[in-house]
Amino acid sequence: MDRDWMRRRLEAFADLISEYWQVRQVNGDTSAAKMRLYEAEPTVVKILQSIDPRIAEAGVLGDTEWGGLSISEPEVRRGIGILADMDEWTTRLAPDAPSLPADGFHSWVWDAARTFWESKHRRAAVHAAATSINAHLQDKLGRRDLSDAKLVQEAFSDKPPEAGKARLRIPGDQKDPGVQTRQRGAAQLGQGAFFALRNPAAHEIGELSEQEALEQLATFSVVARLIDQCQVVT
Fold first, then answer.
1. Mind listing the pLDDT tens digit for each residue in 56-89?
2. What burial letters (b/e) apply to 178-193, b meaning 16+ CB within 10 Å?
3. Which H helix or E strand runs over 128?
4. Bridge-based pairing state of the strands 231-233 and 167-169
């Protein structure tokens, strides 16, 4: 909604109301003032009803028993007040919500993404974070033959390590069902992040919204922490 335009129209209507009452008070001809009020009323009613459907259901102007004009001025004034304060309501009455500072992401993610983020290249920031995780995972496993989702799949595989194929293991008793579940979950999360987030960041065009990009960086931060905490078995 164009709140500034809405407020200006209501304020202009309030001025017309004042003009009408001034003319009537001195027993002048109110026909011109009434005409301007009737011309402006349909838009005023639409505005008031968009703010609150319960407002001005029967219109703002009416006729008195003796043929005079009745005006629901309080509804117009209420609408002006609502529009004046609506933005502040959004800010000051919003429920407290946790914040997620980007500089708290895993260093593999934020150190790689920061420069792109500061220049508002958010898709490039996500891609840089994924590339950084891939590079650190390659270094951790000592592998250069695989990358991205395939590398994650091999890293978290429950198969025993082979020559040139080191594995990652979630810390804890590897026979514990909870540890085994986390191992499978880490593999699926890592692969999903590369498939669903890294690939579009690398190949699609169009900028990401700040919220969407922040959520994607947060996902990669979780992946980075899991990789960083894992033990390498050879």
1. 566 788 887 776 788 889 889 999 999 999 888 8
2. eeeebbeebbebbbeb
3. helix 122-141
4. antiparallel
Identify whether the C-beta of residue 130 lies closer than 8 Å to the C-beta of residue 112.
Answer: no
Token pair in block for residue 112: 């790689």
Residue among 12, 18, 33, 22 nearest 80 (CA): 12
pTM beyond 0.70: no
Q: Which two tokens stand for residue 90?
A: 């959004």
Q: What is the pLDDT of residues 136-186, one digit of tens each?
A: 999 999 999 999 999 999 999 999 999 999 999 999 999 999 999 999 999
If DSSP codes are grouped into helix, strand and coil, which group holds residue 184? helix
String of b and e for 126-164 (b: at least 16 CB within 10 Å)?
Answer: bbbbbbbbbebbbeebebeebebbebbebbbeeeeeeee
Q: Which residues contact 152 (CB under 8 A, 6 or more apart)?
A: 137, 187, 190, 191, 194, 223
Residues 6+ apart with CB under 8 A from 61: 37, 38, 41, 69, 70, 71, 72
